[in-house]
Write a structure and sequence with these properties.
The structure holds two protein chains of two kinds. By secondary structure, chain A is mostly helical. Chain A contains 13 helices and two strands; from the N terminus they run H-H-H-E-E-H-H-H-H-H-H-H-H-H-H. Chain A is globular, with a radius of gyration of 27 Å. Chain B has a domain of about 170 residues: P-loop containing nucleotide triphosphate hydrolases (Rossmann fold). Classes of the chains: A mainly alpha, B alpha/beta. Chains A and B meet through helix 8 and helix 9 of A and helix 2, helix 3 and helix 6 of B.
Chain lengths: ~325, ~260
């Protein structure tokens, strides 16, 4: 039974070695693996970190080059955006307006509907319904956005044009509604997770005082899950801001500073698609615009994430 | 106190041939008993004997468990609890409940107490202040918390939290208070305080408590019901049940031979 050679030790578990022998607690294979594992895992983790750093560096350097040619104030406060057609003009407000309009419409659709479905799933739905609906929602989240884009263009837009004959073939309302529909599953799923993790005991406490299901849902569960709900709403907001395909297909390519959701508009993302697909030469001011616009997007989502963390922390209810 | 002299208690709750099923599991079998008014009735028995299940039929908390089926009669003051005319929310307002684990809401001490009254329509600040004060006094917690009512309920100790939950239940002015192993998560000193509190409250409320602790039942209750496998084995005055049980199984249980 006793094995003294090192080779044997490597192959056989040390339980066969006498506990008093010098090699009793040695296992080379395992110790090498143990040392290698953190390094391998660190390398995997650094891929995404390095990518992020790379993106930020490119974005910053290209944006700085752009702003050496175009004044920052003109970019931020100009009300006309036509960088590709003379007379050239580099005011980002029309694009920002388009993006915010889409985002606002999308959030008006997604947050109430998403929250309502989350409350239904977490507080009202029988177990069977819940276990059937949740996977369906997740499938919905996996539908390619281009499909949503054509859904907007070929189904929602005609509907809108029936109701409002003045609406354009491309309009913000249609794209905004469909972006909203697209992010409902995300709002619903994340809020539902937050609500389901509110302890049963809190609900029982309220039921025992004579609260109805709705009162328990709105006055106990929603406040207790509030930080999770805010997180889901902000994620939805960022998702809507960054959405590209639906707005490219259905919202149009007309950067206009308008408050009318029935007009054709252009979002920041759709503009970036337009330029990167065109034949604008690298290194020109026109090409630089996509980095400046990208940077604006980046700053907005970044600030939003910080705001979300602040809100979530401030309103957190410990349980 | 005038009510304290009331020795002969009236039966307030009467249960007859009650059967309860969770799906195919027969949790309560032909349970018949009466529970007197303004006294403490204790349900004892080993885990899974149905004592908590019966307690939860008194405010219909079992409704929330899918697949629950009930046969027989359970009535409070003559009103059948499982008839269509009973509004569950009104019933629960009249029959308060305290749970095994203290479960204060993640709100301030004040808002915990005011939660129930607000739910049932009390809006006036002055009225709420009054309710909060009297409820906390009834639960013997007022002196400990009166200076920091705005603090989170989680800043209290476990025993204080449980008294807060009792105060919260009292704030909606119930007639009956159900205590579901309300002291099993507490240390001995906090347990004693809750027991003393129960003694004080029984002059004004009908208390039904489930306890896994026989000594607690012997110390605080006026009447004790012993359950085994979903059946009532014996129920009588606490003193008699513990000193002179009529059923052999009761004697085996209280002398610690099983359970």
């Amino acid at each position: 039974m006793q094995s003294d050679t090192p080779q044997a030790n490597r192959k056989v578990l040390n339980t066969s070695t006498s506990i008093t022998s010098p090699n009793a607690f040695k296992n080379n294979r395992v110790s090498v693996m143990n040392k290698m594992m953190p390094i391998i895992l660190f390398l995997c983790a650094s891929v995404s970190i390095l990518t992020t750093i790379g993106i930020v560096v490119t974005l910053f350097s290209e944006t700085i080059q752009f702003f050496q040619k175009i004044p920052v104030l003109e970019f931020l406060f100009g009300t006309k955006w036509s960088p590709l057609i003379t007379p050239k003009s580099f005011g980002v407000l029309p694009l920002l307006n388009g993006t915010l309009m889409i985002t606002l419409i999308a959030c008006l659709v997604a947050i109430p509907l998403g929250l309502a479905s989350a409350i239904y799933l977490s507080e009202y739905a029988p177990k069977k319904v819940r276990s059937a609906v949740k996977p369906v929602l997740e499938v919905l989240a996996g539908v390619p956005t281009i499909v949503y884009g054509y859904f907007a263009l070929s189904f929602i837009t005609p509907l809108i044009r029936d109701i409002f004959p003045g609406a354009g073939v491309f309009n913000a309302l249609s794209a905004g509604i469909v972006v909203g529909i697209m992010i409902i599953p995300m709002v619903c799923s994340l809020s539902e997770d937050a609500m389901s993790s509110v302890p049963r005991a809190l609900r029982d406490g309220a039921y025992a005082l004579g609260a109805t299901r709705l009162e328990v849902a709105l006055k106990i569960v929603v406040p207790a899950a509030f930080s999770g709900i805010v997180a889901s709403a902000v994620l939805a907001f960022s998702r809507a801001i960054g959405e590209t395909m639906i707005v490219t297909v259905a919202a149009g390519a007309t950067p206009t500073l308008t408050g009318n959701p029935l007009d054709s508009i252009q979002t920041m993302t759709a503009y970036i698609v337009q330029v990167s697909l065109g034949d604008t030469p690298h290194g020109t001011v026109e090409y630089g615009t996509i980095f400046a616009v990208g940077m604006t997007l980046f700053v907005i989502t970044f600030l939003l994430n910080i705001l979300a963390q602040y809100v979530a922390r401030k309103f957190r209810e410990e349980y | 106190m005038a009510t304290a002299t009331q020795v002969q208690a009236q039966p307030l709750i009467s249960i007859e041939k009650l059967n309860l099923f969770y799906g195919s599991f027969h949790a309560l079998k032909d349970v018949s008993l009466t529970i007197p008014e303004k006294a403490i009735t204790a349900f004892i028995g080993p885990s899974g004997c149905g004592k908590s299940t019966l307690l939860r039929t008194l405010n219909r908390m079992n409704d929330m468990i899918p697949g629950t089926r009930i046969e027989g009669s359970i009535a409070i003051g003559g009103t059948e609890l499982y008839s269509n005319e009973v509004d569950v929310e009104t019933l629960r307002k009249k029959v308060g409940m305290v749970f095994q684990q203290p479960n204060p809401f993640p709100k301030s001490i004040y808002d915990n107490i005011a939660y129930g009254p607000r739910l049932h329509g009390t809006r006036s600040k002055q009225q709420l202040d009054e309710i909060v004060e009297t409820s906390l006094k009834s639960a013997v917690l007022w002196d400990e918390v009166k200076d920091h009512l705005k603090r989170s309920a989680f800043s209290l100790s476990g025993g204080q939290q449980q008294r807060l939950c009792i105060a919260r239940a009292l704030a909606v002015n119930p007639d009956i208070l159900l205590m579901d192993e309300a002291t099993s998560a507490l240390d001995p000193i906090s347990t004693l305080k809750i027991e003393e509190l129960a003694q004080e409250l029984k002059d004004r409320y009908t208390i039904v408590m489930v306890t896994h602790n026989m000594h607690q039942a012997a110390r605080v209750s006026n009447q004790t019901v012993f359950f085994l496998n979903g059946e009532v084995v014996e129920f009588s005055d606490t003193e008699k049940l513990f000193s002179n049980p009529t059923d052999q199984r009761t004697e085996d249980y209280i002398s610690g031979r099983f359970g």
